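Dissemination and training. As part of the outreach component of the grant, students in the summer workshop were shown how a complex can be specified as a set of sequence lines and then modelled as a single object. The example used during the hands-on session is reproduced here so that future cohorts can follow it. Participants entered these lines:
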Amino acid sequence: MPKLIIDGQEIDVAPGTNLIEAARQLGIEIPHYCYHPGLSIAGQCRLCMVDIEKTPRPTIACNTQCADGMVVSTQTDRVKETRRSIMEFHLINHPLDCPVCDQAGECWLQIYYMKYGLYDPRMVDEKVHKPKALPLGPHVMLDAERCILCSRCVRFCDEITGTGELGIFNRGDHSEIGLFPGRDLENKYSGNVVDICPVGALTDRDFRFQVRVWYLDTAKSICPGCARGCNIEVHVNRRRPHHAGGKRVARLKPRFNADVNKWWLCDEGRYGYGFVDDASRLTMPVWRGEPVPWDTAIAETARVLGRHAPDAVGVLASPKMANEDLIAVKRLAEALGSHDVGFRVPPRTPGDQDDLLIRADKNPNTRGGELIGLDGDVAAILEAARDGRIKALWVFGHDLFDSTWPEADVTRALRALETLIFTGTNANRTSALAQLVLPTAAWVERDGTFTNFQGRVQRFRPAAEPLGEVRPEWDIVGQVLGTLGHAGTATRAEHWFVELAANVEAFRGMTYQSVGDTGRMAQ
Amino acid sequence: MTEKILTRNFDRADAHTLAVYRETGGYTAWEKARAMEPAGITDEVKKANLRGLGGAGFPTGMKWSFVPKNHTGPVYLVINADEGEPGTFKDRYLLERDPHALIEGMLIAARAIRCEKAFVYIRGEYVEPHRRFAAAVKDAYDAGLLGAGLDIVVHRGAGAYICGEETGLISSLEGKKGWPKVKPPFPAIKGAFGMPTIVNNVETIAQVPHIINRGAAWFAGLGTKTMGGTRIYSVSGRVKRPGIYEESVGITLRQLIDRAGGVSGNGRLKGVVPGGSSAPILRADEIDVTMDVDGLRNAGTMAGSAGVIVFDETVSVPEALMVVARFYAHESCGQCTPCRESTGWIYKMSERILAGHGRKEDLDTILDVSKRGAGTTICAFYDGAVGPYISYIEKFRDEFEVLIRK
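and obtained this result:
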């Protein structure tokens, strides 16, 4: 374990740690552009210079591994002057277009200029001109004039996705990022280059010009796009609702988790939030085609479920539901005495999978459903509905027509029911056949936990107000349980989590606090 | 006049053939070296005070000894024949007129560093030198000199100055963009294709057979205390007989200009760039310096590639600065920020000054930008570029001020 001194503070670090990371551990910022902990060392931006004792001139921190006895200074006059010079070099050809640049407010040229630059500009000559507003692929737009050629995006495509679409072409100050001939930036992770671009060169086509970043609020969350459960931040636009056509969720950004997704997020997950503000959202409880108050809807649901014998009621939960919802459903099934409970619906199109993040299972909480014990035979439930044994079926979220089962079979099963209850966020072909439609909050409108494929229980938090009258599933189920005369009327998701932790072995002893921001493995 | 060693056969039209090379003692050094231990060869080269003749002047034997002793995989020898420093044109003559001297030197050097595969990276524009050298390699294979312990791959560049920088050259050789590599690791530890690699200049290696044949003491005695041998000076600009001159590294700049027939143009010397375009300029009153690495370093400039560019009084230094700034702006690889951005900026300023739109503060801005950027980059390109930027202005400031006052 090398022991060294940085700005007078002693620190022990793991062998192989570089000076930027060692300083970071001490809370000391060494400014940098090209260095990224997930990528190889490029040493190109030259901003991370520090002074090392017995070294004749400032040295780049990114390419310097900590050595025993090293004495490092990040604050000498020489280092400060060098940073100022490097900032000036970065900016002489950079357009002064912050007022119309989407990166403004989260731009590392702005941030570092204010912290480490503050020189008087001397450049009076014509700047170099390069292509602007150049689409690189379906998601990413390039402004080559704003690019500082840190090569992070190039290294990402070379080293992380291995797709190698990007290169740096030409020489000197005419160097520019570009696509190799015949290529488009359309790998499954292309949006990450926007995250790692420290300036406004690469912007998100989906997000650009929608809302200024300083109007965004953020919440820590989990991507619901697949069983990986990538840690994300949800950025919502509450303060300028008239911007972006009323879309509340502005974008999703990956949030570092060393054990789950590191710094990355796939495009499918990143751009998969559209349903939240889609016109197909269900916003009011509906009974027999008419909007009704929740009280009516809950009472009607309880009446339908209570009216039948236990073996005439089926519940089809969803692996898109949170652990809190699933334990509530479990309690409901127990209360009703129903054994016809399941949650797996085989998707019509099998999911793709790779070695980086993407999982074939496109549900965030399949593992949770398994651990909580809801894994029944859904095909058999539908068959029982077709045969007339099951008379009331409560479907959560699924569109049963989007499955491997023949449409005619699904239609026959659903039409044979006396009552179909549908609970979900958006209308679909299944909800269209339901007598009772109970609208639910999308994951960004509520809190809860998902259990990823590794068994990691992870929290997501509310980012936006629930739309219309929507409620989380645990609340709806709890209200029904209460109406049926059972305990279970919780007022917070956390109450259900406490229930889960007390009763399901895999979750034993967990609390929201112990799950924290990075999750905790189920037993 | 110094004895001609490297250029001894240059006057013969058939000097490039294996027969003539053998006739004049060729490949006898290789015979001798084969009986020597690798470490013995390196020691001999160290004692000869042979220093790199490509520009940096690094002691050759010491460089060879950096190859890790416990390394088990391949070790590569790479010959830098990407002669691109403006004012330098010596290696092309060696490739064209005495290619076997390089091949024999490579055989010996390869033995010293335990290398079985060597590369020769030839500047793309050097069509004829490439043709001659490739033919010589073929003859050496046919004669059994190559292929039995050493293979040579001849590789042509595509015309980028930066590919003469040793790690830029390695990147290019590996099939990548010719970007210099971040050091450490240094090439002797981790170079071409991730293996220990020694990069030497053509002329440096062409010296090696003579050292082995005639001994380190003899070679060291040809030069100064810290640098042995002769070297080939490329003399250009305002001299009466421009061309290449093989001389001791102990010759003074004044003597060398005289060897080239003296100053042409109006006959009065204004300044001399002594070591290729990257070397800071010397004024007419500063030319009584010896041309070895240390002599020129003490004079505030550098021996570099021994490309001597002579300015007579009619040469405009601001125009020369603009030309050299255009060159460096054009050739900067663009990888790291200080060089990429300021070479272009300084070129624009130098051009503007020449066009009569200079501003009072421009000269100090060029000096300041040059000094701030120096020493902050991945490779030595920018440190080379600031040689002329700074010295042209500091030594001939009045010529610039006249243009700005107008």
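Chain B touches chain A at residues 160, 162, 177, 182, 184, 329-338, 340-345, 348-349, 352, 359, 361, 365, 372-373, 375-378 (CB under 8 Å). Students were then asked to discuss how this feature might be tested experimentally.
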